[in-house]
Specification:
heterodimer, A: 232 residues, 9 helices, B: mainly alpha, 2 domains, 85% helix, 0% strand
């Protein structure tokens, strides 16, 4: 199976704090990967580096063989933990925006998903609640036919009912040779959709294994294991 | 992709500026009509004064909003949370800067054109236009007196300098914001500080170079021909250099040192 993401000795410091330290990571296509770790463990830093929003101090990252740049951004669909859409836009404006800039964006799919979530495309983002904005962002990001989806806290702010729908879309939407990285604290909610998990602790890669093997080896759920590994 | 970026930038800015410019033009038309009707005497005259005040306010507001929008769009769209959207688009960082720069210059020039047109709407009568052209003739004549045959060169350089300066001040704002936001803390204060420091440094460098050139060429600083011969060309070359330095700095920060909140 071919590699979608490869990190070699990836290191990033902010002043004196080390956000990522010598991270080596290889992700293959066709997997749903949970990026798990407590607050400040380096999850968002890793995702930002993959998306070219941060430049590592040393080490390298390759997405389908490419360094982060214009070409890699064409095949990576990124959902930041922020509400990043301009407030003055209508939902339909944001769809046009994505359609304009991403060749792989499927606007029919986006309108479909909006309909399923009962979101009115003529509304302006200003008038939407934070959770609803997050839904719109997720719809946009998942309506691309990307090779790699990077979802940073995709379900944190939405209600449990929408959570189920969103997770379903994530599983059913992506194609065989695409991979999804989901960073979250809500492990129990997503545990069942994951193929692999990555535990990240103080900027170090603690574990990267298929979920089934962990369950077999440890005899416990990912949620339980997480609570043990990251016990305060 | 640059075209698409410009399209969206125009769309995002036009929704503020077009209505403002329209109000200005409508007010100048209204004022023009009011001056034609000589029915406003006594208390009714306040209507005319109010309309005129409204017109002046609309000019000031249009220019101020144009200026503020140039800063705000760059800051909000690139350095705040919207930056997560813009910097993950499959475009080069230089294209992001170019789209903002081109649209900013466009609105600067448009705002000036709209103000001039509205003034023409309000004041252009045969008589006034005669006075206007006479004033232009006189200015040209005095320029000829002052600079001899070089007055064409003077005008050409002056226009070039205005354009270069327009770029320079927009890029100075962009550069300051970018530098300020490469700091981990106090990003906005750092932006203002960067602006002040860079601006002062540019003035001092410019002054030193002009004095130095005057010294080695032995040109008399009292001689008015120094303006088109030395002052303007030096100023222009220097602003060209500053423009490039600021552009490269901004692009470098966006590419290598981006640190969105």
């Amino acid at each position: 199976m071919s590699v979608i993401l490869e990190c070699r000795s990836l290191t990033k410091k902010f002043n004196t704090t080390i956000a990522l330290s010598e991270v080596n990571l290889t992700l293959e296509r066709g997997r749903i990967i949970g990026l798990l770790g407590p607050n400040g463990s380096g999850k968002t830093t890793l995702i930002k580096i993959i998306n070219g929003l941060l430049v590592p101090d040393s080490g390298s990252v390759h997405i389908a063989g490419m360094e982060p740049g214009v070409e890699s951004k064409k095949i990576v669909s990124y959902l930041p933990e922020k509400t990043y859409l301009p407030d003055w836009m209508k939902v339909s404006d944001t769809i046009n925006f994505f359609k304009d800039f991403y060749e792989d964006f499927d606007d029919k799919k986006a309108y479909d998903m909006l309909g399923r979530l009962n979101l009115d495309p003529t509304k302006s983002l200003k008038s939407l609640s934070k959770g609803t904005k997050e839904k719109v962002q997720l719809v946009l990001v998942m309506s691309r036919r990307a090779d790699l989806y990077c979802l940073d806290e995709p379900i944190g702010g939405v209600d449990p009912a929408a959570r189920d729908y969103i997770l379903n879309t994530i599983i059913s939407n992506y194609e065989e040779n695409a991979s999804v990285i989901i960073s979250t604290h809500l492990i129990a909610d997503i545990e069942n959709v994951l193929d692999d998990v990555i535990f990240i602790k103080d900027g170090h890669l603690h574990l990267h294994e298929p979920v089934d093997e962990i369950r077999k080896k440890e005899g416990k759920s990912i949620d339980q294991l997480f609570r043990e590994v990251f016990k305060c | 992709m640059l075209k698409k970026l410009i399209k969206h930038e125009l769309y995002a800015t036009a929704r503020f500026l077009i209505p403002l410019y329209l109000i200005m033009v409508v007010l100048s038309l209204a004022n023009r009509l009011l001056t034609n009707f000589d029915i406003f005497r006594g208390p009714l005259n306040t209507i005319r004064i109010l309309m005129l005040v409204a017109y002046v306010i609309s000019i000031v507001a249009s220019l101020a909003v144009t200026f503020i929008l140039i800063i705000l769009r760059f800051y909000k769209n690139l350095m705040s949370e919207e930056g997560y959207l813009m910097f993950t688009l499959p475009v080069k960082t230089s294209q992001l800067i170019n789209s903002k720069l081109i649209v900013s210059i466009f609105w600067c020039l448009t705002s000036i054109l709209v103000v001039i047109s509205s003034l023409l709407i309000l004041f252009a009568t045969n008589q006034n236009m005669n006075i206007f052209w006479q004033a232009i003739d006189q200015t040209l004549a005095s320029l000829k007196d002052e600079f001899g045959d070089q007055y064409i060169l003077f005008i050409f350089e002056l226009l070039l300098m205005i354009i270069a300066n327009l770029f320079l001040y927009i890029l100075l704002i962009y550069g300051s914001i970018a530098i300020g936001h490469s700091f981990t803390k106090n990003k906005i204060i750092s932006s203002f500080a960067s602006y002040a420091v860079i601006n002062t440094a540019m003035q001092i460098i410019m002054l030193i170079i002009i004095l130095f050139l005057a010294y080695i060429t032995g040109i008399d600083l009292e001689d008015s021909s120094i303006v088109p011969k030395l002052l303007f060309p030096t100023y222009m070359i220097m602003s060209f250099v500053f423009n490039i330095v600021l552009y490269i700095t901004t692009n470098h920060i966006f590419k290598r040192k981006l640190n969105l909140e």
